[in-house]
Amino acid sequence: MIDWAGDPSTALGLTERIAALGAMLATAELLARPRALRADGLLSWPVARLRSATLAVGPTADVLDRLFATPGVYVLCSARALGAALVILAPTGSIVSTGGLLLAALASLLLMLRTSYGNDGADQMLLLVLVPSAIVRMIGTQQAIECALWFIALQCCLAYVTSGLGKLGGRSWPDGTGIIGILNTKTYGMRRVAVVLEQRRWVAVMLSWSVILSEVSFPLVLVAPDPWVPFMLAGGLAFHVVSAVVMGLNSFVWAFGATYPAIAYLAY
Amino acid sequence: MAELAGLTFLVWFLVSAVAQLPGPITRRIRSVDAIGVIPSWSFFAPNPVRTDSHLVYRHILDSGIVTDWTEVFVWQAPPTRWIWNPDRRVEKAISDASSHLSWRKDVTGVQWSTPYLLLLSHVSGLPQTGAAAAVQFALLGSFGHQSGKAPFVRFVSDCHPLDDRLGRRSVDGTRTH
């Protein structure tokens, strides 16, 4: 038994802090490319608002326009970074930490509403961690905190199982060609690794099946014998670290890593 | 309150689970989910992307000369991307728009779609070489590190005037009114 995993508030506190680190990283990366946030940028609000009449015209749209156009979006990003910093620095469950959590969760919701372009699964998972955490911290009871831990853990399991079953349904994952193909791209790949897999197809097939089986079987961590739990979680974390190094999916380490304390709490 | 929160999380999770299955219910859920609180966990499934997306543009100058295609964003994977990867979002935005436009290219009114307007708005604001009358963009696919395979065209936009004073100008420079 791990000490922190025995107390729901402490487990959720660790989940919140890791998610807050992920939110800070995501915010810093957004602010590092301010041109993309401009009206003519690839993460443009004036264009993204056109997807819905409610966002495009009327009083709601006017309010959102102030918040989502530049320079309002910089303020929104800064608010998320501030909220995340408070979560990291303040004592778990304190008023300051809960306030920071609310700020980070609300800003994350608004940034997701602003545009769906450029967002990925890590942004979604951060939202699914921050929002329920903020809600249950305001309620403050152990029962509510346990509900949030279950929600976060089950969303992580759903993510892995959906992804694993989806890969099983495709032709290119089971035969290894899919993983070679993606690692051959400049966006998500690494030439050296792709060359090795191309030359040794059996390694690609084994790697594909290990990803598929690991993802599909991940929920077993919740019912596995105690001694197995750290190894299963370490395997999951290693998968994300390798994905960050090889594929550049750096934000997934934090977003999915944030769910692991919740899973550990429920597994023990 | 804890019970209400628990019920909310339960419904949220169940809707999330249902939304992973393809079909009309999922499409309906996604159509009302403007924020994205219902996740999509496909992650490179069922078949992962095997190509890189490229956004290119060119200008039609006042003189009628058509400039060469220029790539908007040349992806360079930095060695530090495992910890710091700010260009990921820009690349993902191009990739998202590319996948949306690839399967909508023959749909009537594609010029009014969000991805089309997003890319048009972006290339319209890019630096011009000379006095540009119009701009055109295209989306290409390439096979990454496999240099033996030639890039291919996914989508080509119409030509769009850059300045109102030019009126409705056609691609060859003649005025239409």
Notable traits:
heterodimer, A: 268 residues, mainly alpha, 75% helix, globular, B: 177 residues, alpha+beta, 2 domains, five-stranded antiparallel beta sheet, 5 strands, 30% helix, disordered C terminus
What this model shows, in words?
The complex is a heterodimer of chains A (268) and B (177). With 268 residues, chain A is mainly α. Chain A contains 15 helices and no strands. Chain A has one domain. In chain A, α9 runs antiparallel to α12 and α10 packs antiparallel against α11. The mean pLDDT of chain A is 95. In chain B, a hairpin with an 8-residue loop joins β1 and β2. Chain B is built from four helices and five strands. In chain B, strands 1, 2, 3, 4 and 5 form a five-stranded antiparallel β-sheet that branches. In chain B, α3 packs across α4. Chain B is elongated, with a radius of gyration of 21 Å. The chains are: A mainly alpha (268), B alpha+beta (177). The interface between A and B is large, with 82 and 63 residues.
Give the SSE layout.
The complex is a heterodimer of chains A (268) and B (177).
Chain A: H1 8-31, H2 34-37, H3 45-48, H4 53-56, H5 59-68, H6 72-89, H7 95-114, H8 121-139, H9 142-169, H10 177-184, H11 191-199, H12 201-217, H13 229-247, H14 250-257, H15 260-267
Helix pairs in contact in A: 1-6, 1-8, 1-9, 1-14, 1-15, 5-6, 6-7, 7-8, 8-9, 8-14, 9-12, 9-15, 10-11, 10-12, 13-14
Chain B: H1 2-18, H2 24-32, E1 52-61, E2 70-71, H3 87-102, H4 114-124, E3 132-142, E4 152-156, E5 160-161
Helix pairs in contact in B: 3-4
The most extensive interface between chains reads: A-B, 82 and 63 residues
Regions with little confidence, pLDDT below 50 for 5+ residues of chain A: none
Query: What ranges of chain B have pLDDT less than 50 throughout 5 or more consecutive residues?
Result: 164-177
Count of discrete structural domains of chain B: 2
Classify the beta-strand content of chain B into a percent band.
15-25%
Biggest β-sheet strands, sense, barrel of chain B: 5 strands, antiparallel
How far is the first residue's CA from the last residue's CA of chain B?
66 Å
Could you tell me the mean pLDDT of chain B?
87
Counted by DSSP, the helix tally of chain A is: 15
Q: Helical stretch count of chain B?
A: 4
Q: How many domains make up the coordinates of chain A? A: 1
Summing up helix and strand content along with how strands pair, one would put the structural category of chain B as alpha+beta
Major β-sheet profile of chain A: none
In one word, what is the shape of chain B?
Answer: elongated
| Average predicted confidence as pLDDT of chain A | 95
Radius of gyration of chain A: 20 Å
Total number of strands of chain A:
0
Topology order of chain A in helix (H) and strand (E) letters: HHHHHHHHHHHHHHH
Proportion in β-strands of chain A: under 5%
Helix percent of chain A reads over 70%
